[in-house]
Amino acid sequence: MKFVLNQDRVLGLIALAVGLVLVFYWAPVDSETGLVERVRGRSAIGDAMAPSVAGTIIGLSGLWLIVAGGNSVPIGRGNVAWLIGLLAVLGLSLSLMRWFGPAVVEAVTGADYRPQRDTPPWKYAGYLIGGTVMIAGLIFLVERRLHWSRILIALGVSSVLAMLYDLPFDNLILPPNGDV
Fold first, then answer.
1. How many CB atoms are closer than 10 A to CB 170?
2. What is this structure's pTM?
3. Which of 37, 85, 89, 97 has the highest count of CB atoms within 10 angstroms of its CB?
4. DSSP states of 69-97 as a string?
5. Per residue in 148-180, pLDDT tens?
6. First and final C-alpha spacing in the chain
7. What phi and psi, each to the nearest 5 degrees, are found at residue 43?
8. Alpha-carbon torsion 89, 92, 98, 100, what sign?
């Protein structure tokens, strides 16, 4: 049987590469503890456990697609255009999520963002704008048209997610404000 590079296998190769990077680079470098840590003589889940499990699942799923992915369509220009659009939406939304909040605070108050990053409404600015652009942009990529109702849905979903992250926890800072 001949190995044909098709959509499934390319997706599998990408997933395998992402999984390997997560498990062998990102999780160990970005975590202060390993997979399991000893706390007061007891074993506890370490910081690297969740990303390592996620990376393993992603990598195994990619391997499955590589091995079993023989019945899909070959890669075409439409696939490349979709990927470029997807990366553009994600890049724009993540950039807005990171830099919109500080830009608004400086423009409106003239103050530094860091002391205000956990105070309403400033802590929600980047998260809501970036999240709304991400969800609305992905809807646009799928439907090939954009309606006001979809933008309102995206804003609503971003708002609910922000509240689910923020309201139950007193000392949690919405992403990416913890790094600012």
1. 7
2. 0.71
3. 97
4. --SSPBP-HHHHHHHHHHHHHHHHHHHHH
5. 999 999 999 999 999 988 888 777 777 777 665
6. 53
7. -85, 140
8. negative
